[in-house]
């Protein structure tokens, strides 16, 4: 009974507290800030892109994309890389609406952004 009296006030302060633990049982201190840091770094790197950069130059600058799509349109190979640049959902998952698309035609960067994607 004494243990319950001591523990009850201590557990009340934990409501709403979430701790991310990986498969090894280790706490991931970077789980929230890392997605924000990644989005910021991606926005910073996007500001340095130029049209006609090669696919390999862009990948070296931007790193691994969150999504990667490829298809043929009118005989041209189109590749779209998506990089997270903002956070809309607090679920920890990256979705395409949180990303900026980069559009390549035949391995050359031709445009980026939502308007460019719609114009394809």
TrEMBL record:
Keywords linked to the UniProt accession: Signal
Q: Which residues form the signal peptide?
A: 1-20
Species in which this protein is naturally found: Thalassotalea mangrovi
Q: What name is this protein filed under? A: DUF3192 domain-containing protein
Q: Which residues form a coiled coil?
A: none
List all membrane-crossing ranges: none
Note one Pfam family from the annotation.
DUF3192
